[in-house]
Design goal:
alpha/beta; 5-stranded mixed β-barrel; 6 strands
Amino acid sequence: MYRFLLTPRWWGINVFVLLAIPFCLFMGSWQLSRFESRVDGHREAKAQAASARTEAARPLAELLPVDQETSGRLVTARGRYGDQLLVPGRELDGRNGFYVLTLLRTDAGRALPVVRGWLPGAADAAKAPAAPSGEVTVTGALQASEQPGDNGVSARGGLPAGQTAAISAASLVNLVPYDLYDAWITLDRADAPMTTVPVSAAPNSGLDLKAFQNLGYTGEWFVFAGFVVFMWFRLLRREVESARDAALGIVPEEVAVPAVQDEASTPVR
């Protein structure tokens, strides 16, 4: 009864099943490992942010380029404040407002974007306090350049002059006339009446949408593996029933009816 398993058709089905199941299980396990890695990264980022508040600030050059190890660390930089921009559409404690972003021109010849604080309401240059004059030394948490979609960063354009949607060298290069660091800092203490902007998690270290996408893909791959097994058993059952019916000489009614109709429709000559 099971001799049909040795036919070329079933050889192909069996080989496909034997390859598909391990592949689906491997892909599901890989996606699960990606999710677990993001969970571990989230925990490490929280622990790093807590320890960074107790560590001594280090010179900016020692912690560049920004990565998951250096993001959130306290740094110091010295220079003179230059152009000031506003970053609208930023929430803090459930209220909408904007960042006050001022470019610090360092002795290295490049400018460091410094978020001096947050103010509530619509972005208005008249509300933003002027930056200190003369040479200053700033201390703040190092942050990676923002990407649209991360931590509520908007991708919209067409903002008024003096505003930017994202804090990154790519976004600011056309707004200021000097070279920029591919990083920014948020001051550990904002000048009144501004509020200190909290440190953001390092890129790809939080439980964001991508992390839960990995978890969803894990379930999908395991479901695919189960579906392959289900379909194989269903095809096997149909083949066994057909072989049993053929051995008993049973012809399904839906097969016999078309045969009668074909004879009736044949013209008589």
